[in-house]
Amino acid sequence: MASHRRPKQPSRARVTVLTTAAAAAVVLSANAANAAPSEKLTKDEVKAKVDKLYEEAEQATEKLDGAKDKQQKLQKEISTIQDNVARGQEDLNKLRDSLGSLATAQYRSGGIDPSVQLFLSSDPDDYLDKASTLDQLSSQQVEALKKIQDKQRELAQERAEASDKLKDLSATRTELAKQKSAVQGKLADAQKLLNTLTAKEKAALDAEQAQAASRASSRVDLGNTGSASGRAASAFAAAQSVIGSPYVYGASGPSSFDCSGLTSWAYAQAGVTIPRTSEAQANAGTRIYSESDLKVGDLVIFYGDYHHVGLYAGNGQVLHAPHTGAVVRYEAMSDMTFEFGVRI
Q: For residue 308, what are the β-bridge partners?
């Protein structure tokens, strides 16, 4: 006799798992249907995207360097102003003490003149505005009171200046954090792309870069520095001494560099101070617009926003710190967009 018992129903948990798995399968199937036949980028496509990210990172790096430089200058200026205010306050206190001594002397000689009582007040301006009272003051007292007024105005101006610079410093620190985050974000994106390459593809990219650097180096006439000035030749020699040092954003030597960090460090070794950023270095000397007029050691500015700089190495080559993942090396200027040279 056939059984009329109802079949056992699957548990609620089992139904949920099966339903979820089925939905996921549908989504995966749809994605697969809409996907391109091959989504993996080629080695050259990865290189192009990574190079673009490195360029964007360097743009942010130069802004980061500029914010750092401004922060350091503001901190020095604020410190100087605060020192001046402290000294000025001491001078003001001495002036007030001298007025107190004058008042004491008048008291001993027959009581304090009503006008002298003002000398110890906190608002001498109010008193001097009363011309009739001035007639009661001796020339010595007037002179002392005016010195106090001048010193009070001077201190008020310096305190206001310090306050403005402190606000500027706060804004600069905010900009510093923003640019640092931008650099780190671009570098992280570049690393993710590089991680999609196989070990063989990475090795091939490294080999291509090494060959390009070797070709550039072979084109440099290392003895051709006679046309350079003494300072430019010294700066170029300093840069040559650190070939192979790694690019590190925000670094200015002596063991790692970014692009403007290398050029500013090299010229510092020659006893010449130039600005820290590539944009500022673009205005640090005489501009040379023809590549044929460049001399070894001249600064070479690249790209429309001047975000990259190197040292001219002769024969169409530049010695520079290229980007993260690279080292200080020679490279053909034709690999970048040349704007002009700068002769320091």
A: 302
User: 156-187: per-residue pLDDT in tens?
Assistant: 899 999 999 999 999 999 999 999 999 999 99
4, 307, 308, 323: the catalytic one is 308
| Identified catalytic residue from 4, 307, 320, 323 | 320
Percent of the chain with pLDDT over 70: 74
Are 259 and 336 spatial neighbours (Cβ–Cβ below 8 Å)?
no
Write the CB contacts of 290 (distance below 8 Å, at least 6 apart in sequence).
Answer: none
* Residues 317/220, Cβ–Cβ less than 8 Å: yes
Q: Is the pLDDT of residue 134 over 50?
A: no
Secondary structure in 3-state letters for the chain: CCCCCCCCCCCHHHHHHHHHHHHHHHHHHHHHHHCCCCCCCCHHHHHHHHHHHHHHHHHHHHHHHHHHHHHHHHHHHHHHHHHHHHHHHHHHHHHHHHHHHHHHHHHHCCCCCHHHHHHHCCCHHHHHCCHHHHCCCCHHHHHHHHHHHHHHHHHHHHHHHHHHHHHHHHHHHHHHHHHHHHHHHHHHHHHHHHCCCCHHHHHHHHHHHHHHHHHHHHHCCCCCCCCCCHHHHHHHHHHHCCCCCEECCCCECCCCECHHHHHHHHHHHCCCCCCCCHHHHCCCCEEECCHHHCCCCCEEEECCCCCEEEEEEECCEEEECCCCCCECEEEEHHHCCEEEEEEC
Q: Minimal CA–CA distance to 282: which of 267, 294, 266, 298?
A: 298
Give dist(CA 73, CA 304) in Å, integer. 27
Clarify whether 259 is annotated catalytic: yes
Q: What pTM was computed for the model?
A: 0.68
The structure tokens 């609620």 sit at 12
- Catalytic, 320? Answer yes
List the catalytic residue out of 4, 259, 307, 323. Answer: 259
Q: Is 307 a catalytic residue?
A: no
Number of Cβ within a 10 Å radius of residue 224 = 13
